[in-house]
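Extended Data, panel c. Modelled sequence:
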Amino acid sequence: MAMNDTGYELDWNDEISQEQEFELLPAGTYDFTVEKMERGRYAGSEKMAACNMANLTLTVRDPGTGTSGTIFDTLYLSSKAEWRLSQFFLSIGQKKKGEPLRPNWNEVPGSTGKVEIEVNKYTDKNGNQKENNRVKKYLPYEPKTYKAGVF
């Protein structure tokens, strides 16, 4: 598991050189690892009642090219988003299709699965057109199969 990089404080007189390292990934299917999960609270809106939420930091990797990146996703603990919770927990292998599950949230960090990501186009608060990656859907867990003599 990766070390938690919390960064470090810069002094007022320190030189800076690092620029934005965000790289847009092409839409497609990727392997993912949950690097971090933070519990939070959604204040609610006219479309969904207030609820707990899990903010996920996912490292995604294209198994074919080795391309990787980071995607942030939020799981809402709401009856309106229960289907998405099921989709996520099916993907990481905690839930079995057709069976109820009481999620083990402590096992979420470090868990792995497959995800379909898309390129999301949006307008920022300054009216600029932007793009980012977002989770389109979590794909069902595929247990590894082993065949004698096949590597």
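The longest strand covers residues 28-42. This feature is highlighted in the accompanying rendering.
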